[in-house]
Structure formats: structure tokens, C-alpha cells
Specification:
four-stranded mixed beta sheet, single chain, seven-stranded mixed beta sheet, 440 residues, Aspartate Aminotransferase, domain 1, Aspartate Aminotransferase, domain 2, 2 domains, alpha/beta, 13 helices
Length: 440
């Protein structure tokens, strides 16, 4: 029997059902063509930090329109322009340490690929040509392009594409819920893996300072990142901080690295960098890395057609200036306790095992047995069913699986827009509670 494809000529990730037709957005809400309204508790894919529609969207649209009218397309190998220069300056002014230079791309996956290539080239030009391996963590997710996916521990994605993926080394990520007090052991695993691989072959270590959806908003203690930094420096391994999801104010600081006084060698941004108005990502690099390449080959051996695009950079520049002017990053930090307290009410439901996060990046992890922390069998698809049922109740959440060893475990990410009201935070929790009762 042939599958029933959705109406229309577009295909999305979902092939077996018709998606509702979105027609408008306002603040934290999205409306479809049937007049239904959905409270967006996840900023779409943890992207829409300025909300949907409204005066902020108009301001970004005006900035993008001006860039298109003024320049249109400019090849980043031939010219620079004020939109890229001003955005880079805004980011460098806020970034920790000497992360003084920015390279702009269109997606987080692209930026991860570029960061890995930059790390490899830096090692080669330092005379360390054997250093090519990048160590990452389990669980983790760094993107859907092949190198980014190879560096991710999202097994249900990797399984299909396994023959196309390099076998990069990986170590366990901290898991304070199941292994409280185990963070320093998790950090020590990095040094053990560097030595096992041979330090002369390891180019970089890649991790999220505060984990995104892969592990479910795990925020390790400062001692973990101090130890990681010391290990990387001692073995001349470059440290790449993936802040595609946790950066740009999402955790109540402009950069999640700031929570740990962490200065990575390369920092990767995406998602909220343009508030979702246009595709935009960036890699920030420390001054010594770029100065070394300038003295050597004189070029970063990487280029993409839409890197440094004026319209994309204009969207990012407008977003950064709105976040700054409206003090929205500070607002996220101020309302974190209210969001945490509201989510804590969900502990009355037996399926809620843990609630964790920072700023407006939270996860609710679901378990089959709270006493033993036993996860649901993957066949039960608990996270997916929760998200589907919540959507039917007018609530958008971001489900994820694999937070336990990259394969099992169910959670929902709660990452609302930075403009959400406290009343809407209560509405999120009320709708989640209703959904959990219906699933029970």
C-alpha cells in the first residue's frame, strides 16, 4: 500500500502526516490557518529568542532590507562590508578573553565543520601535522553534516549514515542526575583518551559548555571546566566550545562559557544569533590562532558561497543590538528562578525524573521509575508522544532522546522566547501538566 504523502509539493522531515499551515506569530505564540494558537515553549528549535513577529521582527526586517538594497551579494573572498565588520566587533566586545575575530556562515552545522577545519589547519601550520583527531562526548549533538554528525553521539541519526562517518574518539559527558559527584572523573576521561589516542594525534576537544538537547541542559560545575581547560592546554589540544544552542543569551549570559570563566580557542554560535530571522552562524577565534595563520599560509583554507553575506550579518547585527538595548539577556537571568520554580511543580507527576538547566535553557527528563531512574524503553517513544500530545494541547516543546549513553532516555527541552511573561510561563507548565496526566 502506498504511503499517504502530505498535501503539496514540499517535503519535510515528517513524511507521513500533514503539518499545520503556520500563518502568523506574535510574541511567544504561533497561529495556524485553522485559527489555532500554540504557545512556543522552545523558541521553535531553540532559535526564536526575540519571539515571533512584532516590532523586533520589523526592526530586523528593515535592517535586512537595507543590506540587500545597498549591497545584495558580496563575495567574502573579494570584499568586506560594514554589516560583517560591525557584527564581529559587537561579538568580540562581549566575548570572553581574546576571541577577537569572527567568521560568518549560515548554519550551526556549517560552523562546526569550519571550526574543526580551522583547528586542523592551525595544528598543521604549527608543525603538528599528525594532529587530526577531534574528541567529543557521549551524549552530544553538533550538527547534521558528515563531520559534525561523526562528532555527535546521537546514535539513531548515526546508524543510517555510519559507513560515511569517520570514527572520532569520544568520552562520557558529565551526568549529574545519574552520577552526582562524577564530574571530575568525567574530566579525567579526556586526559585518558588523549593518552590512549596519542597526544601527538589529537587536534581538538569539542563540547558544549552547557549541554543543549542531546544531554538535556546539563550545566556542570566550574571545577569540570577548569580541569578540562588545564588538560587541553597541557597537551596542546585546542578547545572548541559549541554554543550554537547555549549561546547568545540563552543561559542568562551572552556566552555560556562566561559561567565558567572559560576562554575556548574557538567558539561556535548559531540559532539565536539572528533570532531565527535568517540563517546565520559564526565561529569566533582567539587572536593567536589567526596571527599564526597570517604569518604562515596567510589564509584560512575554507570558503562557502554565503559566508559573510550582508543580509545575514545585518540580521545578526540588529538582533545583538536589540538584545543589548532591551537588556533581554539580563531579563533571562532575572526570570530564571521563576521558570525553574514553575517547572518544579511538574515533579508531582511520576514520569518526571529530573528538571535541570540555566537561564531559559531547561530540560525535563522523563523516567519509567523515579526511584531507580530507569528510563523508558525506546520502543515506547515517550518523548515523541509527549511532544505530539502537547502540540495537540496548543504547546510547542522540543523532544529529545538519547540523553543516556546517546541511545536511550527521554526529555523535553523548555527554551522560551526571551520576552515571555511570567503568566505565560505558568501556562507552559499548566499545559505540560495536563499533557502528562493524559499520557498517564
Amino acid at each position: 500500500m502506498s504511503p499517504r504523502f502530505p498535501d503539496g509539493a514540499v517535503f519535510y522531515r515528517t513524511l507521513a502526516r500533514q503539518l499545520p499551515l503556520a500563518v502568523s506569530g506574535e510574541g511567544g505564540w504561533v497561529a495556524d490557518a485553522d485559527g489555532r494558537r500554540y504557545l512556543d515553549a522552545s523558541g521553535g528549535a531553540v532559535v526564536a529568542n526575540l519571539g515571533h513577529g512584532g516590532p523586533f521582527a520589523e526592526e530586523i526586517a528593515d535592517a535586512v532590507s537595507a543590506a540587500i538594497r545597498q549591497l545584495g551579494y558580496i563575495n567574502g573572498a573579494q570584499f568586506t562590508h560594514r554589516f560583517a565588520e560591525e557584527l564581529a566587533a559587537e561579538l568580540a566586545r562581549r566575548a570572553p578573553g581574546d576571541l577577537d575575530f569572527a567568521y560568518f556562515l549560515a548554519s550551526g552545522s556549517e560552523a562546526i565543520e569550519a571550526a574543526v577545519k580551522l583547528a586542523r589547519q592551525v595544528q598543521v601550520e604549527r608543525g603538528q601535522g599528525l594532529r587530526w583527531k577531534v574528541i567529543s562526548r557521549v551524549p552530544s549533538y553538533h550538527g547534521n553534516t558528515l563531520a559534525a554528525l561523526a562528532l555527535s553521539a546521537r546514535e539513531h541519526y548515526r546508524r543510517v549514515y555510519g559507513p560515511l562517518l569517520l570514527d572520532f574518539p569520544r568520552i562520557p559527558a558529565p551526568d549529574p542526575y545519574r552520577d552526582p559527584g562524577g564530574e571530575l572523573a568525567a574530566a579525567a576521561a579526556l586526559e585518558a583518551e588523549i593518552l590512549r589516542q596519542g597526544a601527538a594525534t589529537v587536534a581538538a576537544f569539542l563540547a558544549e559548555p552547557i549541554a543543549g538537547s542531546s544531554a538535556g541542559a546539563v550545566a556542570p560545575g566550574s571545577a569540570y571546566w577548569r580541569r578540562i581547560t588545564e588538560i587541553c592546554r597541557r597537551h596542546e589540544v585546542l578547545l572548541i566550545a559549541d554554543e550554537v544552542m547555549c549561546g547568545m543569551g540563552r543561559t542568562g549570559r551572552w556566552f555560556a562559557s562566561e559561567h565558567y570563566e572559560l576562554v575556548p580557542d574557538i567558539l561556535v554560535l548559531g540559532k539565536g544569533l539572528s533570532a531565527g530571522a535568517l540563517p546565520l552562524s559564526a565561529i569566533l577565534a582567539r587572536r593567536p590562532l589567526l596571527e599564526g595563520l597570517a604569518r604562515g599560509s596567510g589564509a584560512f583554507n575554507h570558503a562557502q558561497t554565503y559566508s559573510h553575506h550582508p543580509a545575514l550579518c545585518a540580521a545578526g547585527l540588529a538582533t545583538v543590538r536589540i538584545l543589548d538595548r532591551e537588556r533581554l539577556v539580563e531579563r533571562v537571568a532575572r526570570l530564571e528562578p521563576a521558570l525553574r520554580a514553575a517547572l518544579e511543580r511538574l515533579r508531582e507527576h511520576p514520569a518526571v525524573g529530573d528538571i535541570r538547566g540555566r537561564g531559559f535553557l531547561f530540560a525535563v527528563e522523563f523516567v519509567a521509575d523515579r526511584a531507580t531512574k530507569r528510563q523508558f524503553a525506546r520502543a515506547e517513544r515517550f518523548a515523541e508522544r509527549f511532544a505530539e500530545r502537547a502540540f495537540a494541547n496548543g504547546l510547542i516543546v522540543w523532544p529529545n532522546v538519547g540523553c543516556v549513553r546517546g541511545e536511550e532516555g527521554d526529555l523535553a527541552m523548555i527554551a522560551p522566547t526571551f520576552t515571555i511573561s511570567e503568566a505565560e510561563i505558568d501556562t507552559i507548565v499548566e499545559k505540560m501538566s495536563r499533557t502528562l496526566k493524559e499520557l498517564a
